[in-house]
Specification:
Helix content is 34%, strand content 15%. By secondary structure, it is of the alpha+beta class. It has a single domain, classed as DD-peptidase/beta-lactamase superfamily (Beta-lactamase, 3-Layer(aba) Sandwich), CATH 3.40.710. The two termini are 28 Å apart.
Length: 371
């Protein structure tokens, strides 16, 4: 006999949640039939987009509203911000340049800094590209309090290199992992300098264009801005503006359609650039300290931008990344070798509810890999 809660949630599916009953893939539709609406309701967000991929199959569902009170349900083409998930796009570009011999992971940042000065610690090795990509460069999370500017438009390249020249590293590179946004923007700058092209062009050349991700980028058109979900919560919504200034750390816009394409791509075990970015370069116990990586569960290891969580119970080992800012919170995870991954974004910033959302997404993945 169904519980009262079951009857209530079943009724809510008819009123609020997505269009899972119309999905072509019955298995994926079933996997999110109750989980999707439950996740959205628990978030308190006006709306949510959920993507689940299993092998060549995928489903994209929208719940709630693109903006509070507008009665417009998100769909696969709704535009949103992915926040710090941007970082693992940057490390895929890094992997692509490594496979082409343009850079090496062990290259010092100073090699690609031009006339700018990169700080060092006496007796310690210099900051490398690997240090930047694994948050082990000795840099702080941010440069400081951001000025009153739209989200993800500061700091500019000029701002961060001027700041870096005066910065004293808190510890020796390669000894402690501490989450750093500015480190990933410096990584994007270095890749641009190494390849001789602006970073947005590199991302398009090596990732978004080959995959046909037409709505993923830093400078949305007026038509794309018309599809942007409106953020809410801590910090409020930001305007739809160009965000290439933070191209390495958090500036990307995307859609459910594009994230489904990209998730399927990350399940490809034969792509050399992904093999480089997905590899684990630091196990937690090898680090003196690890700060800022446990939002979605205990970090067990670090890839290039990716956080590895260990298998536990029915939950397989996952590579995951979370994001937040500009009125959005996002999460992506996949099970390497198991052909299953999921992505979720809500248009509300509330750190208190995020862990529950991530666990819910991980649970969807766990249900689909028991084979």
């Amino acid at each position: 006999m169904r519980s009262v809660a079951g009857f209530v949630l079943g009724g809510l599916l008819l009123i609020i949640g997505g269009t899972a009953a119309r999905a072509e893939n019955a298995l994926l539709a079933e996997s999110i039939g109750l989980a999707g609406p439950a996740l959205w309701l628990s978030s308190g967000a006006p709306g949510m987009v959920l993507v689940v991929v299993r092998g060549n199959d995928s489903i994209v569902e929208g719940y709630g509203e693109t903006a509070k009170g507008n009665n417009t349900e998100p769909n696969a083409k709704s535009l949103f911000r992915i926040g710090s998930i941007t970082k693992v796009f940057a490390t895929e570009v890094l992997g692509a340049l490594v496979t082409r011999g343009t850079v090496r992971l062990t290259d010092p940042l100073q090699k690609y800094a031009g006339k700018e000065t990169v700080p060092t610690v006496a007796g310690a090795p210099p900051i490398t590209l690997l240090d930047l990509a694994t948050h082990t460069a000795g840099l702080p999370r941010e440069m400081g309090f951001a000025p009153d500017k739209p989200p993800f438009t500061w700091p500019t390249e000029q701002d961060r290199w001027a700041w870096l020249a005066k910065e004293k590293l808190g510890w020796a590179p390669g000894s402690i992992a501490a989450y750093s946004n500015v480190g990933f923007d410096l990584l994007a700058d270095a890749l641009a300098n190494a390849a001789g092209h602006p970073y947005p062009e590199l991302l398009q050349r090596y990732v978004t264009a080959p995959l046909g991700m037409q709505d993923t980028g830093f400078d949305p058109t007026a038509e794309q801005c018309g599809r942007l979900m409106i953020g809410s919560g801590l910090g409020g919504a930001g305007p739809c503006v160009a965000t290439a200034a933070t191209g390495g750390s958090g500036g990307l816009y995307s859609t459910g359609t594009d994230m489904a394409i990209w998730l399927r791509h990350n399940l490809d075990l034969g792509d050399p650039a992904l093999l480089i970015s997905h590899a684990i370069y630091w196990q937690r116990q090898a680090l003196k300290t690890a700060i800022g990586f446990d939002e979605a569960g205990p970090m067990a290891g670090l890839g290039l931008g990716w956080v590895m969580t260990a298998a536990r119970g029915a939950q397989p080992m996952l590579l995951e990344k979370s994001g937040g800012g500009g009125g959005f919170m996002s999460y992506v995870a996949f099970a390497p070798g198991r052909d299953v991954g999921a992505f979720m974004v809500v248009n509300r910033v509330d750190f208190g509810m995020f862990e529950g959302l991530a666990k819910g997404v991980d649970g969807i993945i766990a249900n689909l890999v028991t084979r």
